[in-house]
UniProtKB/TrEMBL annotation:
Annotated ranges, domain Tetrahydrofolate dehydrogenase/cyclohydrolase catalytic: 7-122
Protein name listed in UniProt: Bifunctional protein FolD
The protein's role, per its UniProt record: Catalyzes the oxidation of 5,10-methylenetetrahydrofolate to 5,10-methenyltetrahydrofolate and then the hydrolysis of 5,10-methenyltetrahydrofolate to 10-formyltetrahydrofolate.
InterPro entries linked: Aminoacid_DH-like_N_sf, NAD(P)-bd_dom_sf, THF_DH/CycHdrlase, THF_DH/CycHdrlase_cat_dom, THF_DH/CycHdrlase_CS, THF_DH/CycHdrlase_NAD-bd_dom
């Protein structure tokens, strides 16, 4: 068995950001509109700080405006809701993202519900989750949407393929399953209570791993030639006590069997931010009655 094709999410995301930058340039020149993304971070979680910094940097690089709101960890929920209300009403803000997780004293669902669905570029509001499930116009969550771009770039038409999504979270597993269903895949959602998980995975042409457990999915679970998308981003101790990033799939064994596989890092992660910028561009177009460009997919 020859080794799998490595799906270069980092390069794909860079190309997508270039296309977004061109569209932003046009939007400014033709309509005088600059897309704006507001990112809210409550608290000082180091990983979250890194993500927020990267988002801000890439937002500016695409020619968009970036508004960062860093709030102390003990910010009352009412203050956060007041900030969201202000951003909802601000015409210069086209996308609003509140970095998750939020501290325990804040009700995550209340925060997500407060964001105007038309500015919910994360796609986490129930209105957007419902639109995705029923075929309406909304925002698809960034991580699964990025996975779909990589899958279609790798495989072309997905219809009739067996896909297994391992993980049932609201932010990845469930919306991923909806997107694959829209592409006419036969979709299985597996999770911690699934009986004989290796067997479910072995039946799949497409494996989406989104459980958050390092190296859980082994090479001998993968059907020869299958396409493997690894959403996991796990920090574990590597050689000499140095921390390293690994996915939910055991890459060394899976890459011997799969037809194509995403690495961690450099796979799905960069796609998440690129799709966030894409959603912000879409929002700015919709808010100004401009035709929405369809980026990230051929044809
Ligand atoms: N409201 C909200 N929306 C989010 O989209 C959101 C969130 N909260 N909370 C945290 C997670 C995590 N997330 C990532 C984004 C980019 C990379 C990324 O670019 N990863 C690089 C490596 C980065 C590194 O070295 O740490 C890669 O995989 O190559 C990873 C993870 C967005 N999230």
């Amino acid at each position: 068995m020859s080794d799998a094709k490595i799906i270069d999410g980092k390069a794909f995301a860079a190309k997508l950001r270039e296309d977004i930058t061109s569209e932003v340039t046009k939007l400014k020149a033709d309509h005088g509109v600059t897309p704006g993304l507001a990112v809210i971070l409550v608290g000082e979680d180091p990983a979250s700080q890194v993500y927020v910094r990267n988002k801000g940097k890439q937002t500016l690089e695409c020619g968009m405006n970036s508004y960062e709101h860093k709030l102390s960890p003990d910010t009352p929920q009412a203050d956060l809701l007041a900030l969201i209300a202000k951003l909802n009403a601000d015409p210069n803000v086209h996308g609003i993202l509140c970095q998750l997780p939020v501290p325990d004293h804040i009700d995550e669902q209340a925060i997500l519900a407060a964001i105007d669905p038309a500015k919910d570029v994360d796609g986490f509001h129930v209105v957007n989750a419902g639109a995705l499930a029923t075929g309406g116009e909304g925002f698809a969550p960034c991580t699964p949407y990025g996975c779909l771009m990589l899958l279609k770039d790798t495989l072309g038409d997905l219809s009739g393929k067996r896909a297994v999504v391992v993980g049932r979270s609201n932010i990845v597993g469930k919306p991923m399953a909806q997107l694959l269903l829209k592409e006419s895949c036969t979709v299985t959602i597996a999770h911690s209570r699934t009986r004989d998980l290796p067997d479910e995975v072995r039946r799949a042409d497409i494996v989406i791993a989104a459980v958050g457990r390092p190296n859980m999915i082994k090479g001998d679970w993968i059907a020869p030639g299958a396409t493997v998308i690894d959403v996991g981003i796990n920090r574990i101790e590597g050689d000499a006590g140095k921390m390293k990033l690994v996915g939910d799939v055991e890459f060394a064994t899976a890459s011997k069997v799969a037809g194509a596989i995403t690495p961690v890092p450099g796979g799905v992660g960069p796609m998440t931010i690129a799709c966030l910028l894409n959603n912000t561009l879409i929002s700015a177009c919709r808010a100004n009655g401009v035709a929405v460009p369809k980026l990230g997919f051929d044809g």
